[in-house]
What we know:
Elements: H1 5-33, H2 43-53, H3 66-87, H4 92-113, H5 116-127, H6 133-146, H7 151-161, H8 164-167, H9 169-182, H10 206-232, H11 234-237, H12 240-260, H13 266-290
Helix pairs in contact: 1-3, 1-10, 1-12, 2-10, 3-4, 3-10, 4-5, 6-9, 6-13, 9-10, 9-13, 10-12
Amino acid sequence: MDTSLIGAINLTIHAFLVGSLLLGLHRKIMARIQGRPGPPIIQYLLHTLKFYVKEITFPITAGNPLYIFVALLDIAIWLAALIIAIDFKSSLLIIIGIYVLQKIVEHGCGLSSGSPYGKIGGVRSVFSAAAEVPLFAVVAAIYLTTHSVLISDILSYQEIHGSLLFKMPICAFAFFILLVSKAPNSPFGIVKGKDIVSGYMTEHYGLLGAIIYIAEAIAYFVLLWLFIAVFIGPLVINSPVLTLAVMVVMTVILAFVNGLTPLLAPHHSVMLQMTIAGLVLCDVLYRLIVGG
């Protein structure tokens, strides 16, 4: 664990590059599934660089300084999640708190632009917040099993007792649905649905758009890493090569799921994810009754 400034910078660059390439791979596979050639795998990275050198635009309807602040907050929260999760292997509760802040970013990003599409995306982000309940239920179940919410302790538990993927398949499935919801063109992606252009990101352009793209790539990397660490264990997470290989496999699976599944209506998206939360809560109650 390298907690120095240089180590943090290297980790950030690594997360951004890997996350960008995985998102590009995701888009390429989806295109192939749908009978299109699709863009090159480096397209996400090219998009980010293109926005980075473009001039920042400020819509007449934009509410400054919130319009700028939300983009900076977006990358700040995912950089914090990256360091807290991977460098410090700290508490899952902190990671969930950071993830909840993403809803504030999405809501503020949409409302600050003044765009009707952005506003709808911002409102939907609040609406979809109810679907984050599975996260809390998953953490509760993990605590009842491992008696800790620290990532380091969860990894240590799996070194002795084996992977949680097979001990807690319902929780692993619920977390996987979270990955599906965060992947591009997700059936749960109601805040950036095709019916509202790019949702809360519609009006963010230039450097601010690039910052949001960087944050999304880091977020994708962090969530994949968390799934591997929490449910597959140290056998994979201690090897950068194995970790990358599993991330590629998971991205392929996510691309197939998203490429073959239509976009859900907002209320259907929330209802389905709340149903999954109910299943996890039943698992939590079972573990309480039988004593973990």
